[in-house]
Design brief:
By secondary structure, the protein is an all-alpha fold. It is 72% helix and 0% strand. It has eight helices and no strands. Helix 3 packs across helix 4.
Length: 156
């Protein structure tokens, strides 16, 4: 038996649960190894002192009290932590940049994919005669009337 085996079988030895062969190997190793002998005597002495205390009654609410006090300490520790403004500023900046990217992405998509026919306003559309690039007389009069109507409606 090795020193590691002694440490593994110490509890069964103290509880007198080793079978005869293991018990004999355990005792022979302890008699030959002074390190294990000192270890066993220290543990045995501690075990005897604990048994000498006798029966100890544990309060019924010990577990609940311990959990309550543990929660109080953990809540107090988390509440006392200062706010890390650097991380807060970084988070706000990420949200703002994401919103801007989304807005400009949608705007770019709309501009890129718009139909030229949908963007024409009836006020702006004029027919241009070939040659000089001037609108014909009928459309310029119509445009002037529409502008006057808009101006008068804005004045009201």
């Amino acid at each position: 038996m090795t020193c590691d085996d002694i440490k593994k079988r110490l509890k069964p030895f103290l509880d007198d649960l080793l079978v005869e062969d293991e018990y004999q190997l355990f005792i022979s190793h302890i008699n030959e190894c002074p390190k294990c002998k000192d270890y066993i005597s220290a543990i045995g002495s501690l075990s005897n002192q604990l048994w000498a205390l006798g029966d100890v009654t544990v309060p019924a609410d010990l577990c609940q009290t311990a959990i309550y006090k543990f929660k109080q300490r953990s809540v107090g520790a988390s509440a006392a932590r200062p706010v890390n403004f650097r991380n807060l500023a970084l988070g706000v900046m990420i949200v703002v940049l994401t919103a801007l990217a989304f807005f400009f992405g949608i705007s770019y998509y709309r501009i890129k994919n718009r139909n030229p026919e949908e963007t024409k306003s009836p006020i702006v559309t004029t027919t241009v005669e070939t040659g000089k690039g001037k609108p014909d007389d009928g459309s310029s009069k119509q445009l002037l009337k529409e502008l006057e109507n808009i101006a008068s409606s804005l004045k009201r």
